[in-house]
Amino acid sequence: MATKWEEVPMSDQSRSNGFAGSLGNIFGAGPVQPGESYGAPGSGRSLSISVVTAVLILGLWWVASNYEWVKPLFLPTPQSVFHRFITISQEPFSGGTLWDHTSQSLMRVFSAFFLACITAIPVGLAMGINRIARGIFDPPIEFYRPIPPLAYLPLTIIWLGIDESQKISLIFLAIFAPMALAARAGVRSVQIEQIHAAYSMGASRMQVIWHIIFKAALPEILTGMRIGIGFGWTTLVAAEMVAAQVGLGHMVLDAAEFLVTEVVFMGIIVIGAIAYIFDLMMRLVEKKLVPWKGR
């Protein structure tokens, strides 16, 4: 009998160790790299956790909506949202089909994003390299950066009217500041020893800027691009509030005005999916261009 009672705590301890080991596999650090004593924090794959999280969220949405824990006006069922997706893909809603709204919004956001890339990145690099450029650009950028786009939306209408240039300019202003500041922060990450070594080997100033400073700042620049495009999508709805005939933001606002919640959910999902796909593409670009990031 003594032997039997002594085996019970050992069995509980084994189960406890097994459960702790499972949690450790999920939330612990990634595999140890050669030369490291412990795994790097945050390393390892999280795809399975992300898939489980997405499935749980969708399952909770399905249960809460189909059992009417929340009224359909506030939380439509996934089936009704999917039905709206199919319907609006084929028939116009609020001035166009889903493709018409999506293509117009893509044009506005990525036009502003392209303009921000060719202006904000050079400005940010100049701010990090040259004190005169920093003195010129830092005050206006830091002044308008905290201001929400809705605050200067009326001013863009007064200055630019209600055509496409006004909408693209509003999104551009939302993207410009974080991208410029990210480029400026990237310049500070360059090691002064690398610059001294380049000059000692006969490099010119432009060669140092391109081969040393720009490459050292590239991880921060790519991060700023990811953050900037996120600001662009959040500003899209504000940009399409005034005199827009088509666009995802216009479609969502029009549906909300008439309490068509299924279309509101559908528009949010489409915007989120496009932004997420772009972010995944930017992560792949980061792995190709800056494989040393985080190492």
TrEMBL record:
PROSITE patterns: ABC_TM1. The keyword Cell membrane applies. PANTHER family: ALKANE SULFONATE ABC TRANSPORTER-RELATED, MEMBRANE SUBUNIT (PTHR30151), TAURINE TRANSPORT SYSTEM PERMEASE PROTEIN TAUC (PTHR30151:SF25). One of its GO terms (biological process) is cellular response to sulfur starvation. Keywords: Cell membrane, Membrane, Transmembrane, Transmembrane helix, Transport. The lineage of its organism: Bacteria, Pseudomonadati, Pseudomonadota, Alphaproteobacteria, Hyphomicrobiales. The chain crosses the membrane at residues 47-64, 109-131, 143-162, 168-187, 208-229, 258-278. Its main location: membrane. Pfam families: BPD_transp_1 (PF00528). This is Taurine ABC transporter permease. It comes from the Bacteria. Residues 102-282 form the ABC transmembrane type-1 domain. Belongs to the binding-protein-dependent transport system permease family. It comes from Rhodobium orientis. SUPFAM superfamilies: MetI-like. InterPro entries: MetI-like, MetI-like_sf. It is a multi-pass membrane protein. One of its GO terms (cellular component) is plasma membrane. Probably part of an ABC transporter complex. Probably responsible for the translocation of the substrate across the membrane. It is found in: Cell membrane.
